[in-house]
Amino acid sequence: MSQSNHSQLYVGCPQCDATVSASVPAGTRTNDLDWNDPNRLQGKETSCENCDHELEFYYY
């Protein structure tokens, strides 16, 4: 069995309340982050499969 370097995030769509998921890279602990790195905050776009509302997930 292999381990994934990604985690699934699940949120409710603000337009229709359907569950929306996105796969994002497994994060580091916040105390291990280089807070001076301007690229530490990243994002991923996805859309709701129920109503096509576009969502953006942001993560460190």
Tell me about this structure.
Strand 1 (6-12) and strand 2 form a beta hairpin. The protein has strands at residues 6-12, 19-25, 42-47, 54-59. It is elongated, with a radius of gyration of 14 Å. The model has no long low-confidence stretch (mean pLDDT 81). With 60 residues, the chain is mainly β.
Q: How would you concisely characterize the structure shown here?
A:
0% of the residues lie in helices and 43% in strands.
Q: What is the oligomeric state here?
A: single chain
Strand order of the largest sheet: 1-2
For the sheet with most strands, the description reads: 2 strands, antiparallel
How many strand units?
4
Distance between the termini: 27 Å
Order of helices and strands: EEEE
Radius of gyration: 14 Å
Counting H and I runs of at least 4 residues, what is the number of helices?
0
Mean pLDDT: 81
- The fraction of residues in strands falls at 35-45%
Instruction: Describe the global form.
Output: elongated
Helical coverage, percent range: under 10%
Coarse structural class: mainly beta
Detail the topology: elements first, then pairings.
Layout: E1 6-12, E2 19-25, E3 42-47, E4 54-59
Antiparallel strand pairs: 1-2, 3-4
Can you tag this structure with a few keywords?
60 residues; mainly beta; single chain
